[in-house]
Design brief:
- This protein has 10 helices and 14 strands.
- By secondary structure, the chain is of the alpha+beta class.
- The chain folds into 3 domains: 7-50, Uridine Diphospho-n-acetylenolpyruvylglucosamine Reductase, domain 2 (2-Layer Sandwich); 59-169, Uridine Diphospho-n-acetylenolpyruvylglucosamine Reductase, domain 3, CATH 3.30.465; 177-285, CO dehydrogenase flavoprotein, C-terminal domain (Enolase-like, domain 1).
- The longest helix has 23 residues, at 263-285.
- It is globular, with a radius of gyration of 19 Å.
- The N and C termini lie far apart (57 Å).
- Bound molecules: flavin-adenine dinucleotide.
- Residues 29-37, 39, 51, 70, 97-99, 103, 106-108, 110-112, 114-115, 120-121, 158, 162-163, 191 line the site of flavin-adenine dinucleotide.
- Flavin-adenine dinucleotide binds at residues 29-37, 39, 51, 70, 97-99, 103, 106-108, 110-112, 114-115, 120-121, 158, 162-163, 191.
C-alpha cells in the first residue's frame, strides 16, 4: 500500500517536522492517523512526515476560548470533558460520528480539516463555532479563520505548512442558547450524506439575537448558510419561520449526485436537518416554537 514511500519520518518536535517539510518539499506529505491517506490513489508522495509525536494532542481551555492540538484524535475529543461541555457538546458528538471506534482511535481533527472533504464532520461544527486555525511553516506562523481554509474539494490554503492548533473563540455569553449537530449517513459509521451544526440565542422575549448554521456534503466545501441565519435574526421562532429557514438553506446549498445520494435528496435533507437542528436548539434554550 505504501510501497512507493522511500522514508517515513517521525519527528519529535514541531521545529524538526517543519524543517523536514521544507526539505522534502512537494515530494513529501504529512501523515497523522492515516485514515484518509490510506484510501488515496495518489502515489506521488515519496516521504511521509508523521505529526503524531509533536505534542499536538491536547485540549486547553482558557478565558479566551478553547485550543485543540491538530493531532488530537476523535476519540480524545469525544471523551474530553472540555469538549463535551462546549456548545452542548456538538464537537464531541461530531467526533463520535466519524466512523467506527477503530477509525476514531486513529483519526485526528487536523487530518479531518486538512483532508478538506466537503463531508468532514468536525469541519461543519468548527465552522459554526467560528474556529480559527494556527498554521505553522518553517519561516512563519499565521492564524486564519477556518472559513478561509478550504478552497475546493480536497484543496486548502496550506503552503508548505501544517495545522498546529484549532482555536475556538469564547462563545457569546448569556442564557437561552442552544446548539445542535445533525448527521445523515447511510449507516451509523458511513460518511455524511448531509451534516449540519446550528447554534442560536434568543432574548428574554424569544427573539433570535444570533444564529449560526453550517452545512457539509452539500457544496464543494462546508459552508455557512448566511441567508438562513439572517432570516432568523430578530424573529420569534415559529413553524412558519422554520419552514422559511429550511427553504433559504435549500437555496444556498449546491450538492452533487454521487453513489451515495442524489443532489435533490441532499438538498431536501439539508432543509429537514436544519429544521430538526433548530428545534433541538430551541429545546436546549428553552424557547417555545409558535404554531
Ligand atoms: C472507514 C472510514 C470511515 C470514515 N468515516 C468518517 C466520518 O464518518 N466522518 C468524517 O468526517 N470522516 C470520516 N472518515 C475520514 C477520516 O477518518 C477523517 O477525515 C480523519 O479525521 C482524518 O484524520 P487522519 O489523522 O487519519 O488524517 P490522515 O489520513 O493522516 O491525513 C489526511 C490529510 O490531512 C493531512 N494532514 C493530517 N494532519 C495534518 C496537519 N496537522 N496539518 C496539515 N495537514 C495534515 C494529510 O497530509 C492528508 O492530506 C472515515 C475514514 C474511514 C477510513
Amino acid at each position: 500500500m505504501f510501497d512507493h514511500i522511500e522514508c517515513f519520518y517521525r519527528p519529535g518536535t514541531l521545529r524538526e517536522a517543519l524543517l523536514l517539510l521544507r526539505k522534502v518539499g512537494k515530494r513529501g506529505a504529512i501523515v497523522a492517523g492515516a485514515t484518509d491517506i490510506v484510501t488515496r490513489a495518489d502515489r506521488s508522495p515519496r516521504f511521509f512526515i508523521d505529526v503524531t509525536c509533536l505534542g499536538l494532542d491536547f485540549v486547553r481551555k482558557n478565558g479566551r476560548g478553547c485550543t485543540i492540538g491538530a493531532a488530537t484524535t476523535m476519540m480524545a475529543l469525544e471523551k474530553s470533558p472540555v469538549i463535551c461541555g462546549l456548545a452542548s457538546g456538538i464537537l464531541a458528538r461530531a467526533a463520535a460520528a466519524c466512523g467506527s471506534i477503530q477509525n476514531r482511535n486513529m483519526a485526528t481533527v487536523g487530518g479531518n480539516l486538512a483532508n478538506a472533504s466537503p463531508a468532514a464532520d468536525t469541519a461543519v461544527v468548527l465552522l459554526a463555532l467560528d474556529a480559527q486555525l494556527v498554521l505553522a511553516g518553517s519561516r512563519r506562523k499565521r492564524k486564519i479563520p477556518l472559513a478561509e481554509f478550504c478552497i475546493g474539494p480536497h484543496r486548502t490554503v496550506l503552503n508548505g505548512e501544517l495545522i498546529e492548533e484549532i482555536v475556538i473563540p469564547a462563545l457569546p455569553g448569556g442564557g437561552r442558547r442552544g446548539w445542535s449537530f445533525q448527521k445523515l449517513g447511510r449507516t451509523e459509521t458511513d460518511i455524511s450524506l448531509v451534516n449540519t451544526a446550528v447554534g442560536l440565542q434568543a432574548d428574554s422575549r424569544g427573539r433570535i439575537k444570533w444564529a449560526r448554521i453550517a452545512l457539509g456534503a452539500v457544496g464543494p466545501m462546508p459552508l455557512r448558510a448566511r441567508a438562513a441565519e439572517k432570516l432568523l435574526l430578530g424573529n420569534v421562532l415559529s413553524v412558519e419561520l422554520l419552514a422559511r429557514a429550511g427553504d433559504a438553506v435549500m437555496g444556498e446549498v449546491s450538492p452533487i449526485s454521487d453513489g451515495r445520494a442524489s443532489a435533490n435528496y441532499r438538498r431536501e435533507m439539508s432543509a429537514v436537518l436544519v429544521r430538526h437542528a433548530l428545534r433541538e436548539c430551541a429545546g436546549h434554550a428553552g424557547i417555545r416554537i409558535l404554531d
